[in-house]
Amino acid sequence: MVRKLGIMLGAVAALAFAAGTAQAQKPKPGGTLVFAISAETPNYDCHGSDTYATLHFSSPFYSTLLRYNLAKFPEIEGDLAKSWTVSPDKLTYTFTLHDGVKFHDGTPLTSADIKATYDRLRNPAEGVVSNRKATFADIDTIETPNPTTVVFKLKAVNSSMLDHFASPWNCVYSAKDLAADQNAPRTKINGTGPFVFVEHIKGSHVAGKKNENYFKKGLPYLDGFKGVFTLQAAAMLNALQGGQVLAEFRGVSPAERDRIVQAMGDRIRVEESSWTLNLLVAFNVEKPPFNDVRVRRALLMAIDRWGGSQGLSRISTLRSVGGVIRPGAPLATPEAELVKLPGFSKDIKKAREEAKKLLKEAGQENLKFTLWNRNLAMPYTPAGIFLVDQWRQIGVEVEHKQSDTAPYLAGLRSGNYDVAIDFSNLFNDDATLALTKYLSHSKNPLNLARANDEEIDALYEKQLREGDIEKRKGYIRALEKRLFEQAYQQPLFWWHRIVLTHKPVMGWKMSPSHNLGQDLAEVWLNQ
Amino acid sequence: MLRYTIHRILLTIPTLLGVAMLVFLMLRVVPGDVVEVKLRGDGGNVSQQAIDAERARLGLDRPMIEQFGSWMWGVATLDLGKSMWTERPVMEEISLRLELSLEVAILATVIAVLIAIPLGTLAALFRDTWIDYFVRIVTIGGLSIPSFWFGMLIMLSLLGFFNWLPPITFTPIYVDPVANLTQLIWPAMAVGYRYCAVVARMIRSSLLEVLNEDYIRTARAKGVYERLVISRHALRNALLPAITVIGLEFTFLIGGLVVTEQVFNLNGIGQLFVQSVSRNDFTLIQGMVMLIAAFYVFVNLAVDLLYAVFDPRIRYA
User: Fold this and answer.
1) What is the mean pLDDT of residues A441-446?
2) Which CATH architecture has domain B91-310?
3) Prediction pTM value
């Protein structure tokens, strides 16, 4: 076992070294990158989306104000912003834009486009969906003193603001397009990104060609790209092995990695990282008996996370046990503290006895409900099956209902479910980003438990305004404790990201988030 | 014959009308519609007001009889409306995929017929010999193995032996025939095997029955060459039930290849059907059901007319 592990680690290290050596080569322009996207976006609008399917589709066409430098993650760098300053009171953010940036329709980009974009994000018009409304709630005014300067004034200090500006979801749209129709980005693509939209053949692929007027000179290297929708994992793996696609950037399971590595040997590059993504169990507190904290707690206590992670990490992308912040991140709760929280005990036998007792107290010994889940095989299906089995062990009968992404999300948003497997799709380890999901439903409708808890809201606010890291940690721990004791929702497992690319695919950078680095500007083909 | 044909064509009208009423009513009986999935399906939170406004825009708030009437008028004028999900014309959404599905169905039919007729004939002529046993094993295999699984075997074999797979995106035959056939021949083979097995077994049993008929004995007694007895008298009659099966199988292939399409990553009608059902896209579902129903009706008509061609005793009045 140890020997096997050693060989595996050696292989990964060798691959990483080979990858590093290769990355140092001089980029060659030309060629078309064909890659797989394992889900098809419902529309093109980044602002209203929470799924990578939208970003892997739309990112090559758009720019953002700031972005993460993936070589030095989580360092932030400018994208459309050439430079920026933050006032000493941390209430004013001033950005200077690059000159000569043009939208794909030829219109020059100005500060008015940034203002229109951020107005749409923070204060969407009726009928417009913005999932970043709460994120930008601290913006008081946006001023545009000249075409290349934009000034954001905040109502209060926000320790996460720069991270929010670097979010990949903040695609910059044309003010002219938005003035004509605030929902234009759902169906029309007009960005300033490295690639120009060519076609979207529904059910088949999206294609883009090189933006000859891209404001970053010399980029992109590729002549174009084609993102092929491969909705079935088996079809995607076959396509990867057969060279029909050269990459899949979301991530594969360990078993899938092993299959491809065995078949392709050194023709495939394997890159691995922990992942800023977790699956959650959410209880709809508006529906009895899940309005009873004893029932919710019992169900969380019955889950053997530590044992489950060992089995699931072999067959799926699920791996680490953690609280609301990614395990290993600076603000994460250490394991020694985590095991004291409800749902994280290592003594599963005792926890399940306690769970049965709580169900009996609540008069729910014969509890039956439906678990609402997404029909993506990896890792939603194994997670769902795992939960059904865990709850069966305390006498709870669960029907596992899986659905396509769109009806799944619609069902979650409308509150039409008992218990759901939700996901927290983050792009960094910032606490505010991670905790926004748990704000009261009245403040953030994306809180799927639909719970309203003033204590959680107050702790969220305190950590957001706190500059001292240790004090901030204290607030985060307190919030986490309250959240888990009330058992509204709880992370199930954190994911482990494994990305496979053919060796000729160069310039793409691995990161802990599959939402980052997908504009493909620096990707090139070594062939 | 002409009168019969016109009569049959006219009969398609009440048939299709019945199908239209059924699909329209059944979709409305099931709770939920496309609006909620569409507006909330990308993860956002949308007010009930916005949902109601979208329902009104799509005409879903109108009385059911009014909705049905305007849809039927559209069908009568060959306008199936717009997809409630993509807002593109239903005809456009379907035609994008129909070309691929139709081509797979035609290729599979060609493969199946070309192999099934000689196989079935040989098995009947050499009944209870090793040839018959061989054909029976091959055809039972075809019936037992699900098409999608055979498809997986084909893909894995291509990968394992040749480290090659067919193109992953569709190229129309008029753009690049080689690329087109390179992609579609494999799914056609996967579904064609089962199709071939069904037809071959039908021909075998039918031919065995015909070979015992009096007119075959008479033909042989008249000294007609055995080859002519088989091809002109026996096989021609034995093909009649096989033609019915071919017609039914062909129509099934248009929309019934969901899993096979997934295995080969094909953007066909089957996948579109599943997606439109999961999104409650009423207009698209209605359009596809009507299309497939029309296929069934017209293929059945064609089969009936072919009967008269193959069997001179059949005359439609």
Assistant:
1) 84
2) Orthogonal Bundle (1.10)
3) 0.83
